[in-house]
Amino acid sequence: MRHRAEPVVRSLNAEWESLAAVPTPATWSLPGRDLGEVLHGIADDPDAGLGELLRRHAAGDELAGRVVMQAMLGKLIRLAAQDSRHCVGDYVAECWLRLAEYPLARRPCRIAANLALDTRLRVRAGDDRRPVADVALDELGVPPRLDVSRLVRAATRLGLIDREAGACLYAVYGLGLRSHEAAQPLRISAALVRSRNARAIRQLAPHAATLVAVA
Questions:
Q1: Same domain (yes/no): 167, 124
Q2: From CA 171, how far away is CA 132, in angstroms rounded?
Q3: Which residues are CB-neighbours of 75 under 8 A, at least 6 positions away?
Q4: Which domain holds residue 82?
Q5: Residue 13 belongs to what H/E stretch?
Q6: How many domains does the chain have?
Q7: Which of 49, 63, 133, 184 could potentially form a cystine with 197 if both were Cys, beta carbons 3.0 to 4.6 Å apart?
């Protein structure tokens, strides 16, 4: 399958080779001496394992989310193989966003299947959605007259976002491109454009007044 050879899959699997030997955090109530054993144990009781990891990820434990991502990777590869318009990277980026939002209290069963379905629906609906992040840029309280390029430069100069996030923000909000249009010159997926913009705006929101003052 061509998808297994895609850079995002190679990168995730290469990273996992190192992570698999990392000792299981003492705070995790999951069987397994290391992350590799934790991942292997998920197959025995998927909902219990994934549920525990998602709870920890929602509380800010990105390592827990990374284990879930590795557990989901095979499903994401298969979804991408059935999709002629989107690549594995689109599915990986969208799935990562879904992890933090998964309604565990409401949907505690068939977690892997639900995550895969949610990801598939969001990826395939992506080209029809407005090219905005989870929080609209104007909700930062930034005056409409403020040039987006100045805002991005100020945020980058202050170290609030990195250059990659700044490029995504400017492409969508400064140039008015849709996510899939911005993705081409940036050489990333549309899902990653949306992900970076959503994350950047959450990072910038507490600093809106400072940005207005210095931009």
A1: no
A2: 11
A3: 112, 115, 116
A4: 2-128
A5: helix 7-19
A6: 2
A7: 133
